[in-house]
Model the fold of this input.
Amino acid sequence: MPKDIDAKESGIGAASKRREDIRFLSGTGNYTDDINLNGQAYVHFLRSDVAHGRITSIETAAAAAMPGVLRVFTGADFEGVGSIPCGWQVTDRFGEVMQEPAHPVLAQGKVRHVGDPIAAVVAETAEAARDAAEAIELDIEELPAVVDMKAALAEGAPKVHDDLTSNLCYDWGFVEENKAAVDAAFDAAAHVTSLELVNNRLVANPMEPRVAVGDFNRATGDSTLYTTSQNPHVIRLLMGAFVLGIPEHKLRVVAPDVGGGFGSKIFHYAEEAFCTFAAKALNRAVKWTSSRSEAFMSDAHGRDHVTKIELALDADNNFTALRTDTLANMGAYLSTFAPSVPTWLHGTLMAGNYKTPLIYVNVKAVFTNTVPVDAYRGAGRPEATFQLERVIDKAALELGVDPIALRRQNFITEFPYATPVAVEYDTGDYVATMDKLEEIADIAGFAARRAESERAGKLRGLGVNCYIEACGIAPSNLVGQLGARAGLYESATVRVNATGGIVVMTGSHSHGQGHETSFPQVIASMIGIDEDMVEIEHGDTNNAPMGMGTYGSRSLAVGGSAMVRATEKIIAKAKKIAAHLMEAADADIELKDGQFSVAGTDKSVAWGDVTLAAYVPHNYPLEEIEPGLEETAFYDPANFTYPSGAYACEVEVDPETGKVSIERFAAADDFGNIVNPMIVDGQVHGGIGQGIGQALLEGCVYDENGQLLSASFMDYAMPRADDVPFYAVDHSCQTPCTHNPLGVKGCGEAGAIGSPPAVVNAVVNALRSAGKDVTHIDMPLSPARVWAAMQG
Amino acid sequence: MTKVTMTVNGKPASGDVEGRTLLVSFLRETLGMTGTHVGCDTSQCGACVVHVDGKAVKSCTMLALEAEGAEVATIEGQAAADGTLNTIQAAFQEHHGLQCGFCTPGMVMSAAALLKDNPKPSEAEIRHYLEGNLCRCTGYHNIVKAIMAASGQDVSAIAAE
Done:
């Protein structure tokens, strides 16, 4: 089938080249660390080097007297300042709300993880601040740390937070009412497959470390924060309303060019609040630039689930029930969206692509003396997909059936489909994506490739899996019921200038996704003008009226829809103006290729004639409509969107060393309609790269005392160019979303969600081809782990 | 403070630095040339790659004083004076070899050094050469493809765009 690449030259569906590339390729981007304000001072944070301890004394006089030091701040300076808030409150299976500890900007009395900020030195230079931090005299009484989640829940375990009853944040059951029916289905099952697995703790590691620059204008009383954020409006609300008590009209948050996020830049962090607070206290701009080592111990981590999953099947291999028990690590504090990740972003996805009628998910969220854990690319959905797709492969092994056939047999085939875990899939075609996968992955040719690998002394394995995800996050009324403390709509203002050019101010944020290119494609198609007549502004709370930001693959589905709604208002008003200019009825006006015409006549006026009339209203229906052409829309989605797909991985395993190499990787995705296929492909590539990283390389490691052992790129294995192959990706299977105006579903996370199980399934398959009785290996599949598995 | 003088993108540049000042800090902070980025503190990520006397160097790993008298080339000097992208830069745009753009300056400078020594590298040679440049966005697919295209190789057969 011909691909849609370059099928169109412009507008929706075109592989338009990215306009933002010019500045990034020529070194003229504007990242937060590139911003330097007049009179700027620098902060260095003194962080805890123990996982758990009580601060018995902290002497700052010597540090304060060091050259260039402006002031040394400690927790005492933040008494009366708010706690860093959590944006989601989960209610447990007994109807009680989760335990929610305070999260101070600087430690108050106790430190709870390696990296917890204790004091902050502000100085004339970064070097002076760093030097002075070494002169702070600090005594910490070290306390026993809890690192392992099971140990943290044990009777008598040391408590991360003294004022909580235990280290259990919540015990969530979903769907609690189904529990007995699920248990009964297991009792009646012809076969039960059970698997215990770890979803390894990861560090997002966008290439740009976090940066914050706080500024204060004493004359106006206005604060400004420049920060590496995926959602500056959210930071304005959380920091302004809950931490520092600054109303929105006195606080501007700017997230300029941001060098990747992957979730880790959603959250409101202590350093942002500190820089904003200190700028006012010192009447100086205050800048913090994270080092990579600091990032490892202060950016929220991802994943870190330990799960037991059980799948019940009847005598015909139909899935009859699914039951899971998960421990989810929250780390030492509740990061912004942490409680939602193992619950509503995980439990609701456990049906996957399959018509399993009964599902029960239990999740216990646990506080430990580790860095807070929150959303990382996929957020809950990779964890759901991994366990489900692994247990299905294991079931296929136990039953002696083909894993693809087992999946096909259990596919959901009729839509809309209401799952037993509270969501309704609007569209999908899982048979089509699996068919497409079998074609692009050349599954039929695998046996020959395996034979070739074996001739070279290598084991070869094939792993296939499906995924579904819930994107376009999310309907506000629904998430409100589920505990979200925010609405999850998006806004856009479309401003048409007198000469016809357009500026869109969107609450979505681009940090690699290419919105500056893809969003104009939509408007260009709607009006019939050139894409370069449309400019996108994002990342500044002074522009878009409000913004919930970019995560959960929501930008086009939610932010793009808001932009469409605002543009529809623009077109409606422009048609009234055109009707007046041509002395016709509004209803007779048609807009095509940037020309307004009167149906059935040869009368027309150009887009530019109408926009000029809006701002020079000499001949204008002033009694009916206002001059000007600017509209705002807020869009709140009716449902999540449900992208889906099927992925295949082929690996070679060196039986001598256990080293795994990815030989082929194919992804067949259904993202609904596509605006820019080039950008969509790139999003999938990047997600697969991260998924391969999780499966083979990445793992955040703590020792039993809570020391972070993997705190640099020397110790934490990031995927490199020679760890991955070229990927075959296809998104020609398109079942458009039924409830947003673009029919789009979202593509940002699919690669990271769909790829880890394919890799692990492939490695298990490879080892079994050599007669090894291996059914599972925990990620990352390092040579040592694979080799050990081969030794039995 | 010691005065250091070098040539950056063909123009003389000098400034007062501490002994511990890194070349990347001199470029970014003293000269205000923020195109070169810092992505780590262990010489792993390669976001800071520049050319010093024609060789690719991680500018976070070299002291500014060590570059005394050197010819330094950075990302800011790669395009033509009128802003026209060079062959490598243009290939990165054409083949979507960048997303967030943070690793991009280092990728472009590393690619330039590679192609200078090896004008038609194989896929494997490119992947091996880029071991010192981390990208978190692209999964490397389009970076490798862009470098192959920049070296004049036909990339139309490579799966997907």
In short: The first helix of chain B runs from residue 23 to 30. Chain B has five helices and five strands. The mean pLDDT of chain B is 96.
